[in-house]
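For reference, the entry.
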Amino acid sequence: MQLSVDKLKSMEPVKIALGIEYLGTDYFGWQSQDGMRCVQSEIEKALSQVADHPIKTICAGRTDTGVHARGQVVHFETTAKRDERSWLLGLNTLLPADTSVYWVRQVGNDFHARFSAVSRTYQYHIYNRLTRNAVYLNRATWIYHPLNAELMQQASQFLLGKHDFNALRSSQCQSHKAIRTIHSISVQRDDNWIILKVKANAFLHHMVRNIVGSLLKVGKGECEPEWMQAILHKKDRTLAGPTAPPDGLYLHSVEYPEKFSLPTLPSQVRL
């Protein structure tokens, strides 16, 4: 028996994009791994239940163990017919409390969560006082040494622009090239808080955490701001600072061309 044209059309897959936030403390990163609690696994399990068929996702940027996200973006394809509200409420009913979907959009076939992105922004939160902050345990990195945020800001500006970031990527990084472009970077203090915000076309493995680890050496007075420029030019990872802990790192937002009409931040979502 031949299927009708209408029936065939109803089975054509559609592409859906999601905006996701999660607390990474109890996750072994984004990417699914056997026997590990990973964000991708939880998302795909919930999606498959709502869609009533297996779903695979692609994300804008993989996050590591313990790293959080405010603005992760994923896409998937499905033959299920659900409106955006049904996807949103169904997913959040099934997802654990440390993970939430805050927008859903049907997108065209030309959209790709990773390859369509024009930039990604990360934030790193440092709590800088003598005693630890119990309220922000695992959600910020505690540094008890006094830090000079102004010197850290000066050092960070040497990273602006297009560079070879070989000195600031993990030895396990699988990217064939270390060339990346940082569009903006800032280090600002607000009382006991020091916030680093960095926007780039893309990032290498551990790149932000290695930037922070190097800036901390400047903030503690161990190195002058110009040292950051020197290690960048020498392209030697062993000369840079240590990798900062994951606790304070957040995938803040992912930017796409305006034609896709996607929210950048949770605050931009209107009910």
About this structure: Confidence is low (pLDDT under 50) at residues 1-9. The first helix runs from residue 5 to 10. DSSP finds six helices and ten strands in the chain.
